[in-house]
C-alpha cells in the first residue's frame, strides 16, 4: 500500500476516534471530520519534509487525536479516555518503528510504555500534592491518562522537556483566552508539549533535521 494511503486511513481513523469521544457534543460529526482532515494534512506535510511514510501516518493520526482532545477540553472541560489510549497505542507503534538496531521490538515497546508510565505518574503526583495542599483537585484523571499517552510518544528521555513546554503553552493559552483565574484547560498545553517532544525524538532517531 502506498504511503499516502496509510496517511489517509490513519487520518480517518483519528476522526472516528474523535467522533466517539465527542458523543453528546453539538456538531460532533463536522468537528470530527475536521480533525480527520487535519491529521491527513499533517501526515502529508511530514512525509513531504522527509519523515518516513509509516511514521508520518502514525504522527498524523496522533495529531488528529490531539486536535480532538484540545477541542473537547476547551469546549466541554473533559478528556475522553479513548483519545488518550489511542495516542498511547500510536506512540508504542511509532516506538517499534524507531527501534534502534541493537534493540528488540519488546525493548522498544517497554521503553515507550515506560515513558507513558513516568509521564502519568508525574502528573498524578502533582495532582495528589495539589489536592493535599489545597483540598481541591487541580488535575483530572483525563489529564493523567493523556500525559501517559503523550509519554509513549516522547519516550523516557524527553518527558522533562515535554512537561516544560506543556506548562508554558498552557499558561500562554490561559492568558490568551482570559481563563488564568478560572479553570485552565491543560490538555491543549499537554498536546503541544508532547507533540514537540515527539517530533524531536523522531528527528534524533531518524537523523532528520527539523
Explain this structure to me?
With 210 residues, the chain is mostly helical. It has one domain. The chain is 78% helix and 0% strand. The protein has 8 helices and no strands. Helix 2 packs antiparallel against helix 3, helix 4 packs antiparallel against helix 5 and helix 6 runs parallel beside helix 8. The two termini are 27 Å apart. The relative contact order is 0.12. The model has no long low-confidence stretch (mean pLDDT 88).
Main attributes?
210 residues; mainly alpha; 8 helices; globular
What's the short story on this structure?
This protein has 210 residues and is mainly α. The protein contains 8 helices and no strands.
Q: What's the total number of strands?
A: 0
Give the low-pLDDT segments. Answer: none
Count up the helices: 8
Cα-based radius of gyration, to the nearest Å: 17 Å
Structural class: mainly alpha
Kindly, what is the distance between the CA atoms of the first and last residues, rounded to a whole number of angstroms? Answer: 27 Å
- Element-by-element helix/strand order: HHHHHHHH
Number of domains: 1
Helix proportion: over 70%
As a percent range, the share of strand residues is under 5%
Mean pLDDT: 88
Largest sheet: none
Basic shape: globular
Amino acid at each position: 500500500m502506498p504511503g499516502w494511503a496509510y496517511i489517509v486511513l490513519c487520518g480517518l481513523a483519528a476522526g472516528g476516534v474523535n467522533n466517539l469521544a465527542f458523543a453528546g457534543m453539538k456538531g460532533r460529526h463536522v468537528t470530527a471530520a475536521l480533525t480527520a482532515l487535519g491529521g491527513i494534512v499533517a501526515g502529508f506535510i511530514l512525509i513531504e519534509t522527509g519523515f518516513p511514510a509509516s511514521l508520518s501516518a502514525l504522527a498524523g493520526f496522533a495529531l488528529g487525536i490531539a486536535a480532538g482532545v484540545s477541542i473537547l477540553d476547551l469546549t466541554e472541560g473533559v478528556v475522553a479516555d479513548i483519545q488518550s489510549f489511542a495516542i498511547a497505542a500510536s506512540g508504542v507503534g511509532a516506538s517499534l518503528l524507531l527501534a534502534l538496531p541493537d534493540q528488540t521490538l519488546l525493548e522498544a515497546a517497554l521503553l515507550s510504555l515506560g515513558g507513558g508510565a513516568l509521564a502519568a505518574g508525574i502528573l498524578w503526583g502533582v495532582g495528589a500534592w495539589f489536592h493535599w495542599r489545597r483540598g481541591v483537585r487541580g488535575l483530572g484523571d483525563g489529564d493523567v491518562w493523556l500525559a501517559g499517552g503523550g509519554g509513549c510518544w516522547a519516550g523516557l528521555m524527553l518527558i522533562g522537556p515535554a512537561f516544560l513546554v506543556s506548562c508554558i503553552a498552557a499558561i500562554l493559552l490561559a492568558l490568551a483566552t482570559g481563563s488564568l483565574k478560572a479553570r485552565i484547560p491543560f490538555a491543549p498545553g499537554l498536546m503541544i508539549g508532547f507533540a514537540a517532544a515527539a517530533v524531536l525524538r523522531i528527528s534524533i532517531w531518524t537523523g532528520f533535521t527539523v
